[in-house]
């Protein structure tokens, strides 16, 4: 099972290697603005799934939201420890 910590580390590693075939690298290449737009989009989709689409679809949408939140941390160069201090 993947943890948020391992997801964040995986995304940071992909970004550091700049693999041109990586969808994560393509996303992060758009910078904070592009990644932030995806966070907003995924948050809305998670909300709508929770309202209307049931548990499984909600879980899928929340997983995508968490992925994009981790990507935003990488794009903004915010270490996981900085976020954890505020939880």
Task: Walk me through this protein's architecture.
There is one protein chain. This protein has 87 residues and is mainly α. The chain is built from five helices and no strands. The protein is 80% helix and 0% strand.
* Beta content: under 5%
What assembly state would you assign to the polypeptide chains in this entry?
single chain
The general outline is globular
Rg over alpha carbons? 13 Å
Q: What is the makeup of the main sheet?
A: none
- The number of E-state strands comes to 0
Structural class comes to: mainly alpha
Q: Total number of helical segments? A: 5
Termini separation comes to 22 Å
Secondary-structure map:
Blueprint: H1 4-17, H2 23-29, H3 31-52, H4 54-75, H5 80-84
Helix pairs in contact: 1-4, 2-4, 3-4
Search tags:
single chain, 87 residues, mainly alpha, 80% helix, globular
Summarize the structure.
By secondary structure, the protein is mainly alpha-helical. It is built from 5 helices and no strands.
């Amino acid at each position: 099972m993947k943890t948020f910590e391992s997801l964040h580390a995986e995304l940071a590693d992909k970004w550091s290697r700049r693999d041109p075939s990586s969808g994560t690298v393509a996303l992060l290449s758009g910078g904070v603005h592009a990644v932030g737009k995806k966070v907003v989009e995924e948050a809305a989709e998670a909300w709508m799934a929770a309202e209307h689409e049931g548990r499984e679809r909600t879980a899928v949408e929340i997983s995508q939201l968490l992925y994009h939140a981790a990507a935003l941390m990488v794009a903004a160069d915010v270490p996981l420890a900085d976020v954890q201090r505020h939880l």
